[in-house]
Amino acid sequence: MEDTYPLIDINKIDKSFVTQEQDNLVLSDISLSIRKGEFVTILGQSGCGKSTLLNIIGGFEIPTKGQILLDGKQVIEPGRHCVMLFQDYGLLPWRSVLKNVELGLEPEKLGSKEKHERAMEYIRLVGLEDNIGQFPHQLSGGMKQRVAIARALAMKPELILMDEPFAALDTFNRYNLQDELVRLQQKEGITIVLVTHDIDEAVYLSDRIFIMDPHPGRIRRELTIDISKPRDRSNSDFQYFRKLIFEEFHIDSRQEPLEFNI
Fold it and tell me: Which residues of 86-123 are buried (b: 16+ CB within 10 A; e: fewer)?
């Protein structure tokens, strides 16, 4: 990572939702910083508020208390500074691969040639240059997610937010896309925040992991994964961090069943 200054500062965030005329506290006293070019994962079991936190970072939700700063400016609404990727890809079925990637560039003041060239740059980067005329129904799940990643990168955002982006894929496609994501993130130097409940995925991808407790969601522990990338899942260092995280959550397994991919 070339830059080490904080890109994102989250200061004492609380988030409540009103349900049946009662306040339901979903997040409590969340504070963390994310550096430019860093890959950070928010890890926790279902219902701990990690997706809500991701939406607050992106400006899609407003915190009940506290604030979030991006480059020193308060985030109060969505903007082109960040792109959100979901597991359902978000592709328009009537658009080809090329036109789906160009979709993210339409708000920018680009000529048709420049828009085409930038879209093709990132389509080639994800290895889909031979598929530019195909439509989403003609693509595998892994290829659809590559299109979504190419579209996000083509927009040149400061930040990419990812909410369980590979959860719907089979193991082999998921592993291949994780490898691609590591390569692309290192090449582009982009900042990524991932939400997952997959412990292996978190260890494989992350520079740091924030482990969350539920009811209400709060940061239990920050963990730095100081292993060089790309990582070997069978390596003893990888297994050390995997075991460490599992034991962290195993404390709660006496109280309620965990919903994790391990």
Answer: bbebbbeeeebbbbbbbbbbeeeeeeeeebeebbbebb
